[in-house]
Amino acid sequence: MALKPFAFAALVLAMSSAGAAALSPVEQKIVAEVKAHSEQGLQLLERSVNINSGTMNHEGVREVGKVFREQFDQLGFTTRWIDMPPAVKRAGHLLATREGKQGKRLLLIGHLDTVFEKDSPVQLWKRDGARVRGQGVNDMKGGDVIIVEALRALQRVGALDNTTITVMFSGDEESAGDPIEISRADMVAAAKRSDIALAFEATVRDKSGKDTGTIGRRASSSWDLEVKGKQGHSSGIFTESAGYGAVYEAARIVDGFRQQVIEPDLTFSPGLILGGTDVSLEASGTKGQAAGKGNVIARTATVHGDLRYLSYEQRDRAHAKMKAIVAQNLPGTSASISFHESYPPMSPTAGNLAILKTYSQASSDAGLGEIPPLPPGQRGAGVQFVAPLLDSLDGLGATGNGSHSPDEDLEIASIERATIRTAILLYRLTR
Predict the structure, then answer these.
(1) Which residues contact 95 (CB under 8 A, 6 or more apart)?
(2) EC annotation (predicted)?
(3) Does an H or E element contain 152, and which?
(4) What are 225-260's pLDDT values in tens digits?
(5) Residue 107 contacts residue 168 (beta carbons within 8 Å)
(6) What domain range includes position 311?
(7) Dmax (CA) of the chain
(8) Could you tell me if 225 and 163 lie in one domain?
(9) Are both 65 and 24 inside the same structural domain?
(10) Please, which pLDDT band fits residue 3 given cuts at 50, 70 and 90?
């Protein structure tokens, strides 16, 4: 169940007042191993970034998968590549597992693909002092490296023995294969065998400059509005016989959404609208054509939009309000709306916040400061298909700027910082 605002505030306060504890001797060794091999981690990042792995570059995605599969093989994991059916049109996923009987069963989530396709002019790798720019450096090959290096530090001190850890690196996070039921089936199955999920999308800093943890992410869904009017001479518009036309009705509905479907962390955006005598929308849903004349009342209109929410209860309230607005038609018009789900919500829960508390304590004990929760409404959809199934924490990855842009970069020191936090967190969760 998602946290109510007052409960969320109380738990945040409790987290911030938790007393610090010193690192155990084993944890001190883990930190030392991370620091001693930071350069190795950076080399692994450079190697992976220098392979283009745009979602639709299937060969490149598989090649990056091979790079990371080698690492998990060295760590004693059982690894396999999961191919997708040809109809899904995606490269597949890397799965690495180990079985034990000690502590929590953990699912660690990353992704191999980037938004930069094979013909992208963005440089692969360019180091500039304490930062590095390149394709997917912080979204999220940096996070993938943090997973590997944290596990490697645990292995070196013998702390991986008898643990149950599953690692899933998807090959299509930036553009999930369709149908979702197939492209995410293996991730969901892994979640059902686990107790806690940790995802390594980039760490986001708050306004004060502190690294944060992501205990909630909004769902990604869409809606399609279809509106009909009576075609006729424009001189008759607004009359009882001619009505208001499809464009006015579409405008009334969309503005009704703006005025009436408002609550915190809920957004809805009409991204494409076409209206006139005739309209046609391409199968992709991103392009279309409209035809009409100024002296002809619009016969049809279509609107394609986005809807993001934090919980299914919030979604249901929004759907009900939107349907009610759609039903209040202007004279001479009719309208219908349909909704389409994509990414589920990662609702902020007490369980998610409890994991963050453990993560924050690990960070504090290592001298890296507390980790406050990022306000859930500030982060969009991501690797959250497992969130409805188990307690989860995201945003454990690297720190950088310009994700998805030619300026995407990464703060090199954030790799070591996040690896230390992650390694201690994994150690404590698996004791």
Answers:
(1) 79, 80, 81, 82, 166, 167, 168, 169, 186, 190
(2) 3.4.17.11
(3) helix 142-156
(4) 999 999 999 999 999 999 999 999 999 999 999 999
(5) yes
(6) 220-343
(7) 85
(8) no
(9) yes
(10) low
